[in-house]
Amino acid sequence: MAVKRILVVDNEQYIQEVAKICLETVAGWDVVTASSGKEGITQAETYQPDAILLDVMMPDMDGITTFEQLQANAATKEIPVILLTAKIQASDRRRYAQMGIVTAIAKPFNPLELASQVATALGWN
């Protein structure tokens, strides 16, 4: 089976690094990172990841706007998206699900559980 490629889009360098190390070490996935929504869209088009972990709160273009642009792009609309967010209410989860977002993972996340949370959400295990 081919190695899964994950794109992590977060404006915080620390979050990118922690997620990258955890997903590569724990799951053996290939991880690509981006620091902004705009860069994330470019990386998604270029690398065609198997999934995208997308921060909600980012300057310039937030995660929801980034998701909407990914959905509007024929090259990226089929890529499943999981949000990383500090605030998750039940109403947010419903709204995200209605938009077509796979799930939301709360920040701060447990680095050792991140890969299994992603795999479970995407049905990879």
Features:
125 residues, alpha/beta, Rossmann fold, 19% strand, Chemotaxis protein CheY, CheY-like_superfamily
Overall description:
This is Chemotaxis protein CheY. It comes from Nostoc piscinale CENA21. One of its GO terms (biological process) is phosphorelay signal transduction system. The modification 4-aspartylphosphate is found at residue 55. It is a single chain. With 125 residues, the protein is of the alpha/beta class. The protein has one domain (5-120): 3-Layer(aba) Sandwich (Rossmann fold). It is 46% helix and 19% strand. It has five helices and five strands, in the order βαβαβαβαβα.
Task: Return Rg in Å.
Answer: 13 Å
What separation lies between the terminal Cα atoms? 13 Å
For the record, what CATH class applies? Alpha Beta
Helix content: 40-55%
Question: Count of helical segments?
Answer: 5
- The number of E-state strands comes to 5
Domain Response regulatory: 5-122
Protein name: Chemotaxis protein CheY
Pfam families: Response_reg (PF00072)
InterPro entries: Bact_response_regulator, CheY-like_superfamily, Sig_transdc_resp-reg_receiver
